[in-house]
Amino acid sequence: MTAADLRLLVPEIVLIAAAVTIYLGGAFSTARRAWSWIAAAALLLAAVALWSQNPSADGGSLGCDALARYVQWFALAAGALLVSLASRPLRFDGTPEYVGSLLLTVAGLMLVAAAEDIVLMFVALELISIPTYVLLYLGRDDAESQESAAKYFFLGVLASAILLYGFSFLYGATGSTAFSEIRAALDGTTILPPGFAVFARLAMVLVFAGLCFKVAAVPFHFYAPDVYQGTTHANAALLSVVPKAAGFVVMARILVAAIPGMEPYSWGVVLAVAVLTMTFGNVMALWQDDFRRLLAYSSIAQTGYILLALAVGLAARDAPGAWNGIVALWFYLATYAAATIGAFATMEYLGRAERRLDSVDDLAGLGRTRPAAAAVMAVCMFSLAGVPPLAGFWGKLLVFGGALSVDTSGTAGWWFTAAAVVGVLNAAVAAAYYLRIVAVMYFRIPLATPPARGGRGAWMSAVACALLVVGIGIYPGPLMRAGNFCDQQLPRVDAGAKHHSPPFGRQKNPPPPQSAPQFGMAATKKVSTPNAYHIRRTLVLSQTRVTTSCHIIFK
Amino acid sequence: MTNHQHILTLAVLLGAVGLWLMLPRGGARGRAVGTVLGIVALGLWFSQFHGLGQWTADGMFFVLAAIAVVAAVGAVTSRNPVYCAIWFGLSLLGTAGLLLLAGAQFIAVATVLVYAGAILVMFLFVLMVAQPEGKASCDQMSWEAGVSAAAGIAMVGVLSVAIGGILAPSCPAMPPIAPPTQEELAAGVLDPHQVARLGDELFGRRLIAVEVAGTLLLAALVGAAVIVNQFSGRRHDGQQKTV
User: Fold this and answer.
1) What is the pLDDT at residue A546?
2) Which residues contact residue A185 at a Cβ distance below 8 angstroms, ignoring those fewer than 6 apart?
3) For labelling alongside A176, which of A170, A200, A327, B35 has CA 20 to 30 A away?
4) At what angle do helices A391-404 and A371-385 cross, to 10 degrees?
5) What's the pLDDT tens digit per position in A397-442?
6) Cα distance between residue B206 and residue B192, in whole Å
C-alpha cells in the first residue's frame, strides 16, 4: 500500500465515508430526502475525484486500466440513477441504512473493477453482496419480501462459497493471488509442478459457476424471478445491474486475462451456458404477467447475449476492433443497464407508497393517461428488444456480428454461427413480450389512471435513462471506443510474458491509445469499422427477426 | 485406464453408494451397510495416495485425514442437529491437525478458534434457541439424499482423479512430490517469525483488502441491527394489537 494506491482509492473512500456518515446520522434523523441528497453529493464528489485522478499511477493490488475506468464510471452512473430512483422508498424507517448500503454496493463495484488480486476481488464482491442482502430486507415489509431476501441470501452465500473454492484452486495451482503472477504461472513464464495446470481448469469451472449466480445465468438463475417479484422496483433495478456488472468484470478479468491457454476449453462452456440462458429466459418471459417477474426473465435472457459476447471474446481474442466480443460485452452491458433501470424507474414513478404497480395489466392505456411515462417506458422496451435507432440495437449488432465473424475455418466458427442464429431467433421471441408491454400501453383501454406519486427522483432517473438510451442509439461512437480501450488493455495470449495490463500507453501489442485520461474523452484510436459484409449479414438477420416477431404478435 | 484409476473410480463409486445409504432418507434403512461401504471406499482411496514422505508423517496424515473425512460424513448423515454440529467440530479439528502437519500453524489455530470456537458455538446456540424437534421436512424427501450424495461425490471424484493423476505411481512423467527439506522448512513455515511475517503481509500488501473487509463487517452489522429492529418492532405492534 503506497501513497499512489491511496490516491487511486479516493473515490471509493469518499463513498464509504459518506455511507458511514449516513449510517451514523441515521440514528438521529430518518429524514429521507436529506440522506438521498447527501448520497447524491457523495457520488458527485467521487466522480470529481475519479475525473481528477492521474491514471498513469500504478498501484500494487489496484489496477487502473481502461476496463477499471469504464466500470468505475459505469458504477457511479448506475449509482446516481439508483439513488435517484430510490429517493422515495416505500418503507419509512430504515432509509438511512438503505441509502448507505446502496453507496457501499457502488463502492464495491468500483473496487471489483480495480482489483488486481484475488483476495481484494473477493472481498470487494462481498462488499456488493452483503449490502445487497440488507437492501433486499429493507425493501418491503411483508412476508413475500422476506422470503425473497432469504432466498437470495442463502443462494448468494452458496455462490460465494463456490467462487471462493475456485479461487483457492487458482491460488493452490499457481502459488499467488495476484492476477499478473497467476497469469505468468499459467502461460509458462514460471515453472509449475507437473500436472498442476489441471487445477486451473477446475478453478475456471468453479469460478464461472460461482459467477453465474451473480449474473443470473441458466443453471443458477432460478432465484431471479422470485426475488425480483418479491422485492421493490428499486431493488430489482439494483439486482439487475450491479451484481451483473461485477460478475462480468470478474469473468473478463479471470477467464480472459488471468487464465491463459484455456480458451479452447472455456469458450465452449461459456457458449453453452449463453445459448441455454438466452433461450430459457426468453421462452419463460412469454408467459409472465407480473412486471418484475417478466423483467427478471428478460434480464436472464440479456445475460445470455452478454455471455455470447464473452464466448466470442474467448474464442476470437485476436479479432480486430469492434467484432472481438469484449467490446460488445461492455457496450451491451451499458445499454442493457440504462434500459432496465429506466423501465423500473418508470414503474416506481407510476406507483405510490400504498399502491405499487405490479402487473403488466396495470399499464393498460398508459399512452392516454400518462403519455410521457408511456413514452419513456416504450423507449426502454424498444431498446431492450433491439429496435434499430436505439442503444439496444447496437449492442445486439455487436454481439451477433461478433459471433458471425468468428473464423469459420475451424469448428468454432460453425458453433458460433449456430449460436448467433439461435440468438437472433431468441431476439424475435423477446420482441414479442417487450412489444406486448408497448401494445398494452398504447392499444388497450385504460382501467385506472396510475397515481404517479413515486417521486420526482424516480421520474428524473427514468427520463435520464431514456435520454441515455436514445443518445447512445444516435451516437454510439464514444461508448464503443470506451469498450475498445477496455479490450485493448486486457492482456492477450500472444503478448508473450506481458501479463499485467500496464497503464495507459505502455503495452507492446496492440498499439496503445495515446493519453486517454478518461475514456471517451481523448479517444485517439478509432474503432475499426465493421465491414459492409458483416453489417449486411446482421441486418438481414435482424430483418428476419422483425418479421418473425410480427408473426408472433399478430398470431 | 490404469489399475490405479480403476481403484480410484471404484473407491469413489463405493463412497457414493455408502454415503447415499447413510444419509437420512425418510424411514430408509441400510446405515450399517453404508458405513461398511464407506470404510472400504476410504481404505481404497488412501491406498492410492502414498509416497508423501516418511511413514510416521504418513501415519499421522492418514489418521488425521480419516478423522476429518469420517467426521464430515457424520455431520451430513447424523439425524440429530446437535450431533451434526459436534461432528462438524470434530471434522474441523481433523482439518486443523492436517494444517498443522503441513506447517501452517497460524491457519490451524485460526481454524480452531474461528470455526470450532465461534461458529460451532453459534450453531449450538441457534439450535438451543430454535429447539428443532423430529426430522426436518427436508429430510423426508427421499430423492434429495440421492442428489446430494451424487453432487458431493462428483466433486470428490473430480478431485480424486485430478490429484490422483499427479500422484499416480505408474505415471512416468510425474515424479512424486519431494517433501520439503529441513532448510526449506526453516526458511518457510518453521521460521519463528512466520506469524510476524504473516501480519506484515496482512497489513502491508493486503491492507486494502483488510480495510474493505472491515467495511463489509460494518455493513453486515448495520444490516443485522436493522433487520432485528424490524422484526422486534413488528412483534411489539402485534402485541399491542392483541392487547
Assistant:
1) 46
2) A173, A174, A175, A176, A192
3) A327
4) 10
5) 888 888 888 776 667 778 888 888 898 899 889 988 999 999 988 8
6) 22
Q: Do A5 and B174 touch (CB under 8 A)?
A: no
Q: How far is CA A427 from CA A70, A146, A433, in A?
A: 27, 34, 10
pTM over 0.95: no
How much is the pLDDT for B143? 65
Highest CATH level, class, for B3-176: mainly alpha
Quickly count: other Cβ atoms within 10 Å of residue A267's Cβ.
25
Nearest to A194 among B174, B218, B219 (CB): B174
Dihedral, CA atoms, A414, A266, A252, A190, nearest 10 degrees? -130
Maximum CA extent, chain B: 80
Which residues have C-beta within 8 Å of that of residue B11, sequence separation ≥ 6? B41, B42, B44, B45, B48, B160
- ipTM score here? 0.78
Residue spans per domain, chain A: 283-492+528-555
Per-domain residue ranges of chain B: 3-176
- Cell numbers 425418510 correspond to B26
Residues of chain B contacting A104 with CB distance shorter than 8 Å = 215, 219
Q: Considering only CA atoms, which of A292, A279, A269 is closest in space to residue A346?
A: A292
- Contact predicate A401/A323, CB 8 Å: yes
B221 near A CB under 8 A: no
Judge whether B102 is closer than 8 Å to chain A, CB to CB: no
> Considering only CB atoms, which chain B residues are within 8 Å of A198?
162, 165-166
